[in-house]
Structure formats: structure tokens, C-alpha cells
Amino acid sequence: MEFLSDIASLINSTLRISTPLVFAAMAGIFAERSGVIDFSLEGKMLMAAFVAAVGSYFLGNPWLGLLLAIIACVSLSMLHGFASVTYKGDQVVSCVAINILIIGLTTALAAAWFGQAGLTPTLNEDQRFLEVNLPFAESLRDVPIIGTIYSDILSGHYIFVYLAYLSVPLVFWVVFKTSFGLRLRAVGENPSAVDTAGINVFAMRYKALAINGVLIAFAGAHLSTAVNANFFREMSAGRGYLALAAMIFGKWHPKTALVACLLFGFTDALQIRLQGVELPAIGEIPVQLIQAIPYVLTVVLLAGFVGKAIAPNAIGQPYIKER
Amino acid sequence: MVSPILELTNINKSFGHVHANKNINLTINKGTIHGIIGENGAGKSTLMSIVFGLYQANSGTIKVNGKEINLRSPKDSIINGIGMVHQHFMLVENFTVLENIILGFEGELVFGKNLEKAKKDLKDLCDTYKLNIDLNSTISDLSVGFRQRVEILKSLYRGAEILILDEPTGVLTPQEVDELFKILRSLKEEGKTIVLITHKLIEIMDLTSEVSVMRQGEMVGHTKTENTNKEQLAEMMVGRSVLLRLDKSEVKAGEVLFSVKNLTVKDDLDVTRVKNVDLEIRAGEILGLAGVTGNGQTELLEALSGIRKVESGEIYLEGKKVSDSQNFLDPRELKDKGLAHVPEDRQRMGLVTDFKAYENLIFGYHDQQPFSKSSVLNHRDIISHSKKIMEEYDVRPQSPNLITSNFSGGNQQKIILSRELNENPKVLLVGQPTRGVDIGAIEFIHQRLIDMRDRGAAILLVSVELDEVLSLSDRIVVMFDGKIVGEKDNKNVTDRELGLLMAGVV
């Protein structure tokens, strides 16, 4: 039975840890399907974490914090669009600039407002999101199998966890079953075809970036106002890049990107679980080695298995109408 | 009773310093096929892009059915019944036919009822004009001819009454051209108006009832097609009289200078693109290699010039083996042995377009006297050589210091040709010598190739322009799916026969 509860807690952690990755990967899909590279998921996630924590601290309501985070992230996406869509700058450079800006900005603002470099005050229960217990979770706990699945795995997560997994079918539906999705995919493949169909290429890319900003804000708020109760320096810890890798590994497709996010989340959950554990025949594995697993996996997956991932055809290219 | 459906008055358009359209006036009558002819860069495509709303004119008015309209984007044009089939197709390659056609005209936010209606409407359109398109096939699986039909269907579905086609036949086989013309004629019978942009005189004579000629951004003439002829049109296009038929002496073929035995070549994706090809080219003859783009000509040419590895088979130069799968000479060694190569893709392989003309004029020979001494370039001699050769080959403008990308396509080609021909090669491999080259320069380039032949060079001419192969070659081989599927003496062969071979029918 201990084995079963180990598995249950591993799956539980996987779902939680994958949440910001899922939001970020879905955000990335919108930007990149429209033909705009988004390396700035990392910076935007960090920005959202900071704004959500600060907003919630001052306004006393985590939902208001989330709203401010959305506004901040959409603004950053618009900045990226302004530089790389309207002014046709290099998209990667624009992203790197945003990432560097946010690392510095969050640290400096935290120091200016709270006197501690890169740290915001701890949020109380009213100022943060709490775990959601699904109805009947307690009473069903003792039912074999169903109880484990429902009460130990599915129940007791933060609202963001549920939203993240609901966002995947929603993104799939928007991208593949609506006219907006058709235009979105077309604009990333052949913007000229979209232009000659009488659709404004630039407006399409800005819309995609706006959705991208909303989605990535959820990832950041999850980090600072749900799983943690404050913002700390560089708390996104490479999740934006990891999500980007998951998106590429998932071939810019929401379902496969979800699988990749869960895979990364699982290795991370596994490394936490393995820390300090004596394995038979091997003994205790050094923490550093275990912590490297998700990153090593990223490199291996991207180098070995994604050889044939085909990016949207027009990705990274600004649309130039007249010769 | 003819009534104008499209009237353009005093259209002007500039790109930076280039005045692409100067005071253009044009009237197109309803239910006609109207040809617009002119050389590359004459401003035809720019003008039609303005009519399609893709570019905005700097000044001038456009009337459709007598009503002045303001075209800010293609949407405005489409609403006014104008459709355009672009030279480079505006299709999303990994979308289905259906997805491409409804793009922008979905009629609903979430796919459902309208999608079904669109399918039905499209089937009806396909039947009416005998387009024979499967709506569910993916564009990347379709041949070029079918992709073009998808473009036509797309315009019709969007309600086009005026259909503009920009150089529609450049990529088609003669049979596909016939099919296209059939479709265009049936469109005309249904009352649609067609504007055909082309630089091919024969298409104008074949299909149109009225023709307008553009030259250097200006409209230089309008006439009924029945009142003119090819020679007259060519003269209007170029601004001087042009020799349409090449003067070519009888072939005096000598010994075999270049031969290929059982050659097989793979491409970068490890797909076999050239299959057991045998060729022989004699001194003083031009061997034309015809075929639809993508049937292995590119890989063959690359293997022959030493750029691509030979999978199996042998290549002989002057009777001596130069390459097989084990040992091969690189392009430079081949060059030293008297083989010159004018690559198909001049901007990617023939030139460094960001470099100055004089640099491109000596590439490959830059380490030889007098261009360099002990590894140091001799600038003065290079410039004087460049000036001389640019004059000889009529490269315009004659400025060796100009960046190569600023030259027109024809002049870029002349830069490559002058570089390669200047060394008097024994064997010359030329790929698409006149692709994107205007008619005046074509005449010049063709004459130079004939001169080379008459001086005893063995020339392999690879071209997708059947007219070019027919007018230059002494013998013609046709390549289909990597194999040589036929060889003809160029005395009594017709383009129909070659077209069938090119399509793999025979």
C-alpha cells in the first residue's frame, strides 16, 4: 500500500509541477503558431509572479493580483510585438532584451519597495490562492482505487492546476476548430496567403501575442500566489525555457506539448522524491545529479527525438509587404 | 456591346527611388481576356498588385463597373469582385485545399454549418469549370498545375468577376498550359473577365482579344490582338527591334568531350534523384535537357559540376575519367581542366549578391594571374578587367563597384556568363540561363551560347523553358523522375512530343 501512495503522491506532484509549464507552453503555441518566436516566456513568467505577489499584497486579493499580472504580461507581449512585428526587429533579440529587463526590474523594484533585493513580503491566507478540495473528497478517501485517484491525486490542488489542464482542450479547440485558429496557423505558415485573403497579418500577430500574454500570466501567478506565498529572485528558474522546449518537442501542438510538459514535470517530481533516498545496489545519488535530470532530459529530447519537428514555416520572419 | 469593367487612370507608384508605375491608364472590357505584356521589371506585377489592393498607389483612380473604389487592402478588391492568381502561389502548404480556400471567408467563428455549405458550393464550382480538385487533399501533395487550379477556385469562391493571372504558365508543362487555357476560355464564356500578365508573346497571340504593353513602368500601347503580331509586340516591349528567331548554323559536332555513364545521384534527404543516366556531348554541339522542375535536373547538374557526390557511375572529360563514387574532382579541379558551370540558382550558387560586381566577376579565378600575386589581390588589374568584360557582355550599369544585388536579373546572369565564358571552357554546363531575364538580354545570352558552340565547346543546356531548349539545342534529351526518357534530334521534334515525354506519359 505504501507503494501505491508513493505513486499517488508522485502523480499529484507531477500535475502541480507541470502547471506553469502547461500555461507557458500553451502561451508559446499561440505566439509561435502566428510566426512570432517567443523566448520571453521566461521573463514574462517572472514578471507575472512579481506583479501578482505585489498586487495581491497591496490590494489584499489574489484575483486582483492575477489581473494586474495579466495586464503586465500582455503589455510585455505588445512590446515584443511592437519591436518584432511592427518594426520588424530580430525576434530573438527582442525576447532576450525582455528577459534581461525583467530579471533586473523585479529585483530592483522589490528592493525599492520592500527593502529586500528580490524578495516580496509573505502573503497571508486572504492574499493568496488556497488549495481547492473537490466535493466529497474526504468521504471518498477510503474507497479503494477511486478514493486514491479522486482524493489523493485529483483533489487538493490550486485553482491554477485545474485551469491549466482545462486550457489544453480549449487551446486545441481554438487552434483547430475555429476560423481564428485557421487564420492563426495560416499567418505562421504563409503570411502572404493571409494578406491576399484580405486579413491583416499584423493584427493577427498582435491578437496571438495578447492571448500569449494572458496565458503566461497564469503561470507566474501560480508560482508566487499559490505554491509559494511570495516572490523571490529569479523564481521562474528556467521554466519558461523548459516550456518552450516542451512546445517544440510537442511539435507546436497542444496535446503533444501537454505530454511533454507532464514528462518534464514527472522527472522533476521524481528528482524531488529521489533526494536522500537509498536506492538498492546504487546507494544514495548525489542531489546535484538528481536535480540535473529534467535539464539533461530536455537536451536529450531536443537533440535526439525532435529532429523532424517542423516549425511553422514563417516563424521568426517579419512580414514585409512591399519589396 | 462592350462595357468597361475596370478602368485605371493616372496610376503612379514608387518604391523608394524606383518609379515602378508612371501615369498608367488602362481600360479592361467586360468578358474579355486582356493581356498585359512587358519585360521583367516593366511594372506589370506592381500594377496588378495595386488593382488587387496589395500595394497602394501613390496617386490615380480605379473604377470598377464605372464606380470609383478605394482599395486599401485585398479585402476591398475581393469585395469588388477582383481576384488574383499570383506568380508565387499564395497557399499554405500544409493546409488542405478546403482550408486554403475558406481562409478569411469562413463565414462563422466556429466551423460547422457554413463549412458544409462551402464544400457544396466548391463542388459545384469544380463541376462547372471541370477543375477536378479533391477538396481534402493537402496542398503539398498537389502538382504545380493543380495548385494553380486551387488558386483559381479560391478566387471564384470569393466571388471574382475579374481574374488576374500573373505569369501563370512559367511553371507548367505544355499539356498543363493547354488545360489552363481551356479553363480560362470556359471562364470567359461564363462572362468572367480575365487579365493575363505574361512576357510570352505566344500566349498573348493564343488567348487574348486585347493587349496592353508596358515598358519601364509606362504603358506604351494598347491594341486589339488581331491587329498586331509577335514581332510588333516584341518591339514595343523592348523599345527596339528584336530577333525572335535565332540564326544558327548547321551543327558540326566533333569528338565526344564530355560523357556520363550510368550515373546515379542522391539528394540531401538520401532520395535517389538521378537514376542510371547516360549522356554524351560532342564538341560544337548543344545538348538540351528538358524536363519539369524537380525531376532530377538540379542534382544531375550539381553532380556533373563536382558539387554533389556521385552515388554510382562515371563521368568522363575528354575521354579521361574525372569522377566516380570513389574518386572525384572538386569543382576547382574540374574548372582547371576546362569545365565551366553556370548554376541554375544564380543568386544562391552563382553569385555572392552582397559583394561588388568586380568581386563576383573574378570568383573562382581570383587566385590566378593577373588578379592576384602571391595571394594579394591586384585591385587595379581586377577593375580594368571588370570594366572591359562588362562592356563586352553589355552588363548594365557598367560600374564594377556596384553591389551585385542592385543589378537586374538579366545583368546578374551576364556577370556569371562573362566570368565563365571568358576562360574559353571546353565544356560548359548551363542551368536555366534565362530564368527571370528580360527578352533583350535573352537574345544576347542565347547568341553568346551559340558563339561558344561554334567555337567548338560542348554545351549542356538545362532549362525548364521548352522554347529555349528548342531554339538552342542540336539534340534534346528529356528527363523525367530521374531518368532520361527520350532523346530527339532537334530537326523534326515538336513541343507536343517533348511535353508528353516531360509529363512521363510516353
Question: How would you portray this structure in words?
Answer:
The complex is a heterodimer of chains A (323) and B (506). Chain A is mostly helical and 323 residues long. Chain A has a single domain (2-125, 153-305), classed as Orthogonal Bundle (ABC transporter involved in vitamin B12 uptake, BtuC), CATH 1.10.3470. Chain A has helices at residues 2-33, 41-59, 62-86, 91-114, 137-140, 146-154, 159-177, 179-189, 191-195, 201-227, 239-249, 254-274, 287-291, 293-305, and strands spanning 131-132, 157-158, 278-279, 283-284. In chain A, helix 1 crosses helix 7 (159-177), helix 1 (2-33) packs across helix 12 and helix 7 (159-177) crosses helix 8 (179-189). The radius of gyration of chain A is 20 Å and the shape is globular. Chain B is α/β, with parallel strands linked by helices. Chain B has three domains: 4-238, 3-Layer(aba) Sandwich (Rossmann fold); 243-338 and 425-506, P-loop containing nucleotide triphosphate hydrolases (Rossmann fold), CATH 3.40.50; 353-423, no CATH class. Chain B has helices at residues 44-51, 74-79, 97-102, 113-128, 144-157, 174-189, 201-207, 230-238, 297-304, 331-336, 346-350, 357-362, 379-392, 409-421, 439-454, 466-472, 495-502; strands at residues 4-15, 18-29, 33-38, 59-64, 67-69, 82-85, 162-166, 193-198, 210-215, 218-224, 256-266, 272-282, 286-290, 312-317, 320-323, 339-342, 372-373, 376-377, 427-431, 458-462, 475-480, 483-489. In chain B, helix 14 runs parallel beside helix 15 (439-454). The chains are: A mainly alpha (323), B alpha/beta (506). The A-B interface holds A 177-180, 182-183, 185-186, 189-190, 192-200, 313, 321-323 and B 15, 52-55, 73-78, 84, 86, 88, 90-95, 99-100, 102-106, 108-111.
